[in-house]
Amino acid sequence: MAVAVRGSRGGGGSGFGGFSLRSFFSYRIFVSAMFSVLFIATLSVLFTTNPSTPHHDSALPTTGNAYMRRTFLALNSDPLKTRLDLIYKQANDHVTLVNAYAAYARKLKLEISRQMRMFDDLASNFSNLQMKPSYRSALFESDGPLDEDVLRHFEKEIKDKVKVARLMIVESKENYDNQLKIQKLKDTIFAVNELLIKAKKNGAFASSIAAKSIPKSLHCLAMRLVEERISHPEKYKEEEPSPEFEDPSLYHYAIFSDNVIAVSVVIRSVVNNSDEPWKHVFHVVTDRMNLAPMKVWFKMRPVERGAYVEVNAVEDFTFLNSSYVPVLRQLESAKLQKFYFENRAENATTDTHNMNYRNPKYLSMLNHLRFYLPEMYPKLHKILFLDDDVVVQKDLTGLWKIDLDGKVNGAVETCFGSFHRYAQYLNFSHPLIRERFNPRACAWAYGMNIFDLDAWRQEKCTEQYHYWQNLNEDRTLWKLGTLPPGLITFYSTTKSLDKSWHVLGLGYNPSISMDEIRNAAVIHYNGNMKPWLDIAMNQYKKLWTYYLDNDMEFVQMCNFGL
């Protein structure tokens, strides 16, 4: 029993060890054989010339693996297929470009809808070309060799589409570049415009300073005249007023100014061009500071040819006080003084509109005397109001002969188109202004106005002026100045005169026709470029200097900028 048992165990042990060794070698041989079979199968697939699957899909492949697979197969199969792949790639690249430009055009919202439709149509044509049955069956779904004639025809159509695509892309690129250029140009124009606006404001501010300041020559003249008055008091004693000052049968003029040389030019120009100068009477009113220089001037240089000159100060008209005159009362208010005197220079250039109204002349009663003519000259029937910056070139007596049809004011209208209408001078957002006046009504000019004082008294125009001036204490009806209240006061009582009587703009407009100037009875240097200033326009200045009294010794001594 024991032997049998050992033999069984020993035989069993040696048999198991031999079986394991053989199994191990058999497994390795089996694995090697399987790898060899797989390798041979892979080679047979890669190098086969007629694959069982179609070479091209019905649509253009979108993955890189598919494209490389076809390229690899084409290189090992048919040269025409390589050519087809290159055509396909070219077409696909241009489709991408076309779609990109179309998307960019939509993003920019350019008004090129026709071009965008062409982009879309071109992209669609590329796709439709490959979907044609003749090309699809012969080129993309064929398992055999490609038809060279069909490929050549397909290539020709693709190249035609590519050519059109390139032309469209070049044109579109120019358009997009132009849009960028236009935007850059707009930015540049905006920046330059900002600089221009700033320069205009600075220029307006500088011009305003030049217009407001007293020239050295004018100051010199006033000082010389005062010195003459002090040195020779016996020559300048007060005289009794001449009866001609109140004679209504003569031609009376009102000139309110503190500028001696300007007043002398106005009077000389009137007298030199009048047919009967001895019938002309000039009523000059100035302020207290310039009363002595004005009197000395006309004493030293009497008006020629028998004309009469009366010189008074505002203070001589005692009824002009703050209890009666609304403007004087308002000028005494702290609010209005703050508006004028707290106008800092650094803020002035940012508010050119209000800067025009912050002028010292609006603080002077001389500027408002024109509303009190009937009370200042109670015995007169008509009077011609002249600014001190005018030059008279013709005889003006014809103005007294014009029938004003019961109107108070005879003036030249200044409106043209939408300019110089009431809407530009009055605040039509205010209900009182909106209800009483027409914003399209034509404005007229101060500077040369013939007033019927009898009609003025009958219409009670001064009372009307007071009514509106009191309402405008907070400057909500109009800004400062005398033209807006004049437009209101004489709204329905102004008669339009022929424009040749009064030509304006010589103080700011360099484009006035010289024929128009020569034909004018009165030329007006309204604006900042007054003829006695260095900033005056040279083409107009000689018309003013022609009437300047150059023989007057003080004019020569003061080098009056001639």
Automatic annotation (TrEMBL):
It is an enzyme of class 2 (transferase). Pathway: Glycan metabolism; pectin biosynthesis. It is a single-pass type II membrane protein. The lineage of its organism: Eukaryota, Viridiplantae, Streptophyta, Embryophyta, Tracheophyta. GO terms for molecular function: polygalacturonate 4-alpha-galacturonosyltransferase activity. Belongs to the glycosyltransferase 8 family. It comes from Prunus yedoensis var. nudiflora. SUPFAM superfamilies: Nucleotide-diphospho-sugar transferases (SSF53448). InterPro entries: GAUT, Glyco_trans_8, Nucleotide-diphossugar_trans. One of its GO terms (cellular component) is Golgi membrane. The keyword Glycosyltransferase applies. Keywords: Cell wall biogenesis/degradation, Glycosyltransferase, Golgi apparatus, Membrane, Transferase, Transmembrane, Transmembrane helix. This is Hexosyltransferase. It comes from the Eukaryota. Its main location: Golgi. It is found in: Golgi apparatus membrane. One of its GO terms (biological process) is cell wall organization. Its EC number is 2.4.1.-. The chain crosses the membrane at residues 29-47.
